[in-house]
Automatic annotation (TrEMBL), chain A:
InterPro entries: CitD, Mal_deCO2ase/Cit_lyase_ACP
Organism: Lactiplantibacillus plajomi
Subunit structure: Oligomer with a subunit composition of (alpha,beta,gamma)6.
Protein's name in the database: Citrate lyase acyl carrier protein
Domain of life: Bacteria
GO molecular function per UniProt: citrate (pro-3S)-lyase activity
From TrEMBL, chain B:
Source organism (scientific name): Lactiplantibacillus plajomi
Protein name stated in the entry: Aldolase/citrate lyase family protein
One MF term in the entry's GO annotations: lyase activity
Alphabetical list of Pfam families matching this protein: HpcH_HpaI (PF03328)
Signal peptide: none
Domain of life: Bacteria
The keyword Zinc belongs to this UniProt entry's keyword annotation: no
Record bears the keyword Disulfide bond: no
InterPro entries referenced in this protein's UniProt entry, alphabetically: Aldolase/citrate-lyase_domain, Citrate_lyase_beta/mcl1/mcl2, Pyrv/PenolPyrv_kinase-like_dom, Pyrv_kinase-like_dom_sf
Domain named HpcH/HpaI aldolase/citrate lyase: residues: 9-228
Keywords: Lyase, Magnesium, Metal-binding
Cofactor annotation: Mg(2+)
């Protein structure tokens, strides 16, 4: 299990998403508040889980407020919050498969 | 030099920190976008902007719009990661800010080459341009422009330049005349493109058009923009007019005819022309073709 601290990334501006990661044992738990929940809620939750698992994040509470962000923005905000949570800002693994 | 045939009338800055700005800027049809990781991005959001940059480069189809990245300054602790993200994402070019010497260009080029190797991209493919923002940068413009085969162009950035010159910004741009002239001469001597600084009074379209006409007449290739509404105006001014296209066609046709007839100097549209006019006519037609307003066969 990775050692993480609470971290947040993104904003609640239109087309953005705010992602908060909190340490929590017992697997991944996702909460989503989205302006397009009815149409895309399940897709966004699946995207968050997929992105987190690709990063190796298996135990955490991830709270997301989505304001109509593109998938790539949601991924970017989850990734940013994750790297802030583990305290890494340089030597990121750009270009490896989990970043696609 | 890495000029390529891409048309670059407009280059619009986008604050990469802001998702709404980077998600679909291609809809405004700029020739180039510049994803900004430098001044527009808050100090505590550099990491977030960088990751947003990478995901945008990898996942948003910019439909042929050339994608540049303004990285942080060479003496910052941010530039290495900026370049790694930009190159891994496949940006066409890197814009280096606050450039004052050829050595700085070479140092940045080395970092780009290392990133290209690390991320299995063709070494040498990523272009560069340098922003000149100080008297020393202007003085060294030719050396900067010729410092690397990656160099596509040089650009004037007036904010810091004016400050370091102890000058006052004027509507007419008098304080920039020396810098514009000197960097343009350097760019032409080096065989790279030249770009004018942003026009910050976005509500003053008449003033913007006046400045566009000035820099176009001086010989600049394009303009840095900060607002989507500046793009169409910039293209309208930089595009050859119908009369200019027609005259260029007449020159090309007349020179071809004169070669066949053994005549060296001739009259076209009431003006005396000779072989020296051909290059300008070709440039006009190529620009018109690239802008989609010339379909003829004389290019």
């Amino acid at each position: 299990m990775q050692t993480i601290k609470q971290a947040v990334a993104g904003t609640v501006e239109s087309s953005d998403a705010q992602v908060m990661i909190l340490p929590q044992a017992g697997g991944l738990k996702i909460t989503l508040d989205s302006s397009v929940y009815d149409q895309y809620g399940q897709h966004i939750i699946a995207l968050i889980i997929e992105t987190a698992q690709a990063l190796g994040l298996d135990d955490a509470l991830i709270k997301v407020v989505d304001k109509g962000a593109l998938d790539c923005t949601i991924k970017a905000r989850v990734e940013t919050a994750y790297y802030r949570a583990i305290g890494q800002t340089t030597n990121l693994p750009w270009g490896c498969s989990k970043w696609q | 030099m890495a000029v390529t045939n891409h048309i670059r009338r407009s280059m619009i800055f986008l604050n990469t920190q802001r998702a709404a700005l980077v998600k679909e800027a291609f809809v405004y049809h700029p020739d180039c976008v510049i994803f900004d990781l430098e001044d527009a991005v808050a100090e505590g959001e550099k990491d977030s902007a960088r990751i947003q940059l990478y995901q945008t480069l990898k996942n948003v189809d910019y439909q042929g719009v050339e994608r540049w990245v303004r990285v942080n300054a060479l003496d910052s602790d941010l530039i290495n990661e900026d370049i790694r993200a930009a190159v891994a994402g496949g940006a066409e070019g890197i814009r280096l800010p606050k450039t004052e010497t050829a050595a700085e260009v070479q140092a940045a080029a080395d970092k780009i080459a290392a990133a290209e190797t690390e991320f299995n991209r063709p070494v040498g493919k990523t272009m560069m341009m340098a922003a000149l923002e100080s008297p020393l940068g202007i003085m060294n413009a030719y050396e900067i422009a010729t410092a690397s085969d990656r160099m596509m162009g040089i650009a004037l950035s007036a904010g810091d330049y004016t400050r370091t010159m102890h000058a006052k910004r004027t509507v007419a741009g008098t304080e920039l005349f020396g810098a514009r002239s000197q960097m343009l001469i350097a760019a032409r001597a080096a065989g790279v493109m030249a770009f004018a600084t942003v026009y910050t009074d976005t509500d003053n379209e008449a003033g913007f058009v006046d400045e566009l006409r000035l820099i176009k007449d001086m010989g600049f290739d394009g303009k840095s923009c900060i607002n989507p509404k500046q793009i169409g105006v910039t293209h309208a001014v930089f595009n050859p007019s119908a009369a200019e296209i027609k005259h260029a066609e007449h020159v090309m046709q007349a020179v071809a005819d004169s070669k066949a007839n053994g005549v060296g100097v001739l009259t076209v549209d009431g003006k005396m022309v000779d072989i020296a006019w051909v290059e300008g006519a070709q440039r006009t037609l190529k620009l018109a073709q690239a802008a989609g307003i010339y379909k003829g066969a004389l290019v």
